[in-house]
Amino acid sequence: MIILDEPYASVPLLDWMEASFHPVLANAFTEKLAAGGRALNLVDEAECARRLEAGERIYTNSENALAWILDQVDNPALTDAIRLFKDKAAMREKLAALNPGLFRQTADRAGLEAVNVADLPLPVVLKPSVGFCSMGVYVIEEPEDWAEAVADIARREDGWHERYPESVVGSQKYIIEGYLTGTEYALDAYFDEAGAPHILNILRHDFAGPDDTSDRMYLTDGTIVNEWNERFTAWLEAVNEVVGARSIPVHVELRVDGDVIAPIEFNPLRFAGLGGTDVAFYGVGLRTYEAFLEDEPVDLAALYAARPGKVYSMSLLNPAPEASLARPFDGAALCDRFSHVLAYHEFDPVAVGFYGFLFLETDAQGAGADERDWLLRSDLMEFAG
């Protein structure tokens, strides 16, 4: 079963849904797609709820769908897992034994201004307990950073909540936790009916610097897959010994510092958001959602070994703080900067908050590395109207 919702469904996902005729919930979003010519296998709310209550696998493209499931579906194994995974504070408490000694505390939104920064073991990360695409995430290195972060939240939070419901971007509770150095990764994975994890994407999340919290650069290649697949699978097994999830896809963000793997967030019922999971399709021909829904075995190492020396990246094109989202963005000119664009997904920046997704194939070294570095650091203002 599939549930599609605002703000965006990718072309590869929709193409596969037409070809497979996989059932999808009839709602305002899918009915609009059908009216526009997409041949979708629409089922009504009662049929969708019946399928999910019977334990059928479910995939969503958007966390906007979570509220409908929580309201309409009587399947505690599913709904309890959604609530747990989506609540970062609850997950931190649940998994505390896996990361003993890592500082964490929670604060109400109304109390952020009153937090005594002198009591915090800087550097720390401030983030909403329920969040999406790095919205409301701040690295606090110096005491003055706290006031700047709280002021920025006050400026931006109305816009976040205009675009996304409370179930996607929460507003009442924030997490403060110790900042781990090391490297950040993202996983698209699922737990099967026996609780065993299956990884479908391993993406390294690169940053322009310590203050960067954007989703500008995720990349993968054979080296990353070979180095981390076994270790991350073992870590997910340890996680699920505590959580006990069954038959559910997750997009997981985590940070690795030596022997420590610390979770950042678990996003239930979806893979990399806004079509980002399609990096696997554009790179190695893997439709992650098909592998999950059809329970198809995937040999990631073999897929990437067939493309030696190539790096596949996805870039969520975030605007500069001073950019006006109402002004046109020249995606074609941006694409001309690169040697091998796999795909460019254009968004409505006013509705989504981002210009789009860019997928690239680059060489691991040389000019390819230079292209990735430029994209990572550009403010994109030269293309913004």
TrEMBL record:
Pfam hit, one: ATP-grasp_4
Keywords: ATP-binding, Ligase, Nucleotide-binding
PROSITE patterns: ATP_GRASP
The keyword Ligase is assigned to this record: yes
All residue ranges annotated as the ATP-grasp domain in the record: 88-297
Keyword hit for ATP-binding: yes
PANTHER family xref list: ATP-GRASP ENZYME FSQD, FUMIPYRROLE BIOSYNTHESIS PROTEIN C
Protein name, per record: ATP-grasp domain-containing protein
Organism of this sequence: Adlercreutzia shanghongiae
